[in-house]
């Protein structure tokens, strides 16, 4: 079975990769990648450990390929926001629309923004090196951008509360994040790719009115709010057996009740973020 199943998977994968390269129906590709991952779960009992790991990486690469193409389609280069200088206090307010953030072409590795209030206004942004910050949604435009991409990298003790996203379709990538709270609503008529890489001890509320896949890798001791369990489909690529980890016994994440505090950013920070 292994040889036949492997051949079929590779045929589907190659065809999908070719479609992504030559066509622009990105929303349809997201659905097809999810279907391919479901197929991989179905055939996994007959695959070797090496094949399971290899094909899991293939699917991750397809997701990244779609995200990259979305970015090129919009012809917008994501802005990277990072603050220079001394640590900020929690009384300071920093907004990407103003002149306080420094927009860098490359990631800086030795500067950390501490205690800032950041308002998200741009549909294509990367936020780096945040500690004890609050990131919240700006005013929702009447006609949000069709596509966008948000990246959060090296985040600690921070509340990300994005109840209104500035785009309908796109990707959210969070990596190297610990001891933080993440809240966002999936647009009703949109499609999101959500990837979580190396999160530790984080609380997440990803609210969606339709099934939403969340791709995880290298995450530990994270919990999703139990109210989201009916529509959140977790694909844990750290799980070499490729089992669906929507269970309360998964080591990388659980679905648990925790107080949402009326989604008030300041209250969430006071309750869950420890100085």
TrEMBL record:
<dbReference type="GO" id="GO:0005737">
    <property type="term" value="C:cytoplasm"/>
</dbReference>
<dbReference type="GO" id="GO:0007021">
    <property type="term" value="P:tubulin complex assembly"/>
</dbReference>
<protein>
    <recommendedName>
        <fullName>C-CAP/cofactor C-like domain-containing protein</fullName>
    </recommendedName>
</protein>
<feature type="domain" description="C-CAP/cofactor C-like">
    <location>
        <begin position="123"/>
        <end position="260"/>
    </location>
</feature>
<dbReference type="InterPro" id="IPR017901">
    <property type="entry name" value="C-CAP_CF_C-like"/>
</dbReference>
<dbReference type="InterPro" id="IPR027684">
    <property type="entry name" value="TBCC"/>
</dbReference>
<dbReference type="InterPro" id="IPR016098">
    <property type="entry name" value="CAP/MinC_C"/>
</dbReference>
<dbReference type="GO" id="GO:0007023">
    <property type="term" value="P:post-chaperonin tubulin folding pathway"/>
</dbReference>
